[in-house]
């Protein structure tokens, strides 16, 4: 409950008469003596917890990227736009192909990455919209201004682009790989 200060109370009048507007602030040391707490340990635990949180978060993001790359079975529903882009086994490691998605006015690039498998991105460079091409060193190269992206994440490695390539989610049904969704990032 908040206790209001009575301007006419004896204590208030006395403080005013002595020029003491407010009770003196309690010194930091007194406060700590009355409430002993292992502050040093608290700081260590906080930093450790923060580090754990950051590592856990980045691990979860990495896992999410993997999950997003291929959804698994083809999602169903009236809103699902599934476009067949390749057959299973069609691309050997380091092979890639360009496909139309979601329509003939936009293209994606499907790559079979060594040790990662199939990934797909919009092939439109996020700088000034030139088409990127895959290189066997695991990068996507934009020839217009030497933009470079990591093919396993779509993130920018070098050059003028500042945003990663949009991811294209894939799904599999039977022996067919479908593009199902563009994920802007
Ligand atoms: S358009 Fe790709 S780097 Fe400029």
TrEMBL record:
PROSITE patterns linked to this entry: RIESKE (PS51296)
One GO CC annotation: membrane
Keyword Cell inner membrane: no
Boundaries of every Rieske domain copy: 83-179
Transmembrane portions of the chain: 53-74
Keywords annotated in UniProt: 2Fe-2S, Disulfide bond, Iron, Iron-sulfur, Membrane, Metal-binding, Transmembrane, Transmembrane helix
Cofactor(s) required, per the database record: [2Fe-2S] cluster
InterPro entries, per database record: Rieske_2Fe-2S, Rieske_2Fe-2S_sf, Rieske_Fe-S_prot, Rieske_Fe-S_prot_C
A molecular function GO annotation: oxidoreductase activity, acting on paired donors, with incorporation or reduction of molecular oxygen
Protein name, as recorded: Ubiquinol-cytochrome c reductase iron-sulfur subunit
UniProt source species: Ktedonosporobacter rubrisoli
């Amino acid at each position: 409950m908040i206790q209001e200060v009575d301007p006419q109370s004896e204590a208030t009048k006395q403080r005013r008469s002595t020029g003491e507007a407010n009770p003196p602030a309690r010194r930091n040391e007194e406060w700590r003596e009355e409430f002993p707490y292992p502050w040093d340990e608290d700081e260590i635990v906080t930093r450790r917890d923060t580090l754990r949180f950051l590592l856990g978060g980045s691990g979860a993001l990495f896992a999410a990227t993997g999950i997003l790359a291929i959804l698994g079975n083809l999602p169903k529903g009236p809103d699902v736009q599934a476009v067949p882009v390749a057959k299973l086994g069609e691309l050997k490691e380091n092979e890639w192909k360009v496909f139309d998605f979601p329509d003939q006015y936009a293209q994606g690039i499907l790559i079979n990455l060594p040790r990662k498998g199939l990934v797909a991105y919009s092939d439109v460079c996020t700088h000034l919209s030139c088409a990127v091409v895959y290189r066997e060193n695991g990068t996507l190269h934009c020839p217009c201004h030497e933009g470079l992206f990591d093919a396993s994440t779509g993130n920018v490695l070098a050059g003028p682009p500042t945003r990663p390539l949009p991811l294209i989610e894939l799904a599999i049904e039977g022996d067919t790989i479908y593009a199902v969704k563009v994920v802007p990032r």
